[in-house]
Fold RNA methyltransferase.
Amino acid sequence: MEPLADARGNKLLRRVRRLLANRQAREKWGQTVLEGVRLVEDAWRGGLVLEAVIYSPRLVQTARGQGLLMALQSGRTRTLYVTDAVLAELADVETHQGILAVVEARLPRLASALPPPGGMGVVLVGVQDPGNAGTLIRSAAAAGVDLVGIGAGTVDPFNPKAVRASAGAVFRTRVGWLEPGWEQSLGGGGARWYAAEARGGRPYGEVDWSGTVVLLLGNEGAGLPAAVRERAQAVSIPMEGGVESLNVGVAGSVLLFHAARERARMRMQVKR
């Protein structure tokens, strides 16, 4: 076990505090912070660049934690040993697992929201809650989506809460910032463009999810901007029991998995 680090004035700890709290810092340095054994394990196994790891005695109280630390140190990842109290002060979760990691985190810039021909994309416009954004990225990955475009007003996908909600899927899925003017691609490219609406749209079970498809998801309260809605086919989820709308993370996930099922069914029909 390495000596405990002096937390006072430590540059790495100062950087972690800024990365956790500040989107501009994450974008400037191209880094974010992972919290917890599972996320750090997945990052290491997935070949992500771990810039540094901060750990405390709590990590090595389990065999799993000991094994992770040994693997990280054998790979020459920079490690910093601090007290449980110091890590608790840093952590963004209520009960930490004794480990944080600084990981490389950069997103490409995309001029268009179009996925590859025959593929499926999803666009988040003004989705402000990091839990919703992370959930949608996780669902997109699980549903086999080819591209997740991040539009104006959407929370940083590398916000630590969003990263946790995505269960690390943000690092395994093609996610990119949409450049200003991406809306010019709306309605084109031979794609089917569907705008999710709380009500008034065509029931999602009645639209064609084949071919190249882009699903547009908007702000939790205001929905999609009019300029986006007007250039896409509105789709809605029929609801009963007096329910007016669903959380965008839930609604988007319902639509994504329905689309994935329909697309898989159509592929099977073609094979026959």
Remarks:
- The two ends are 60 Å apart (CA to CA).
- The chain has a mean pLDDT of 93.
- Residues 240 and 246 are 12 Å apart (CA to CA).
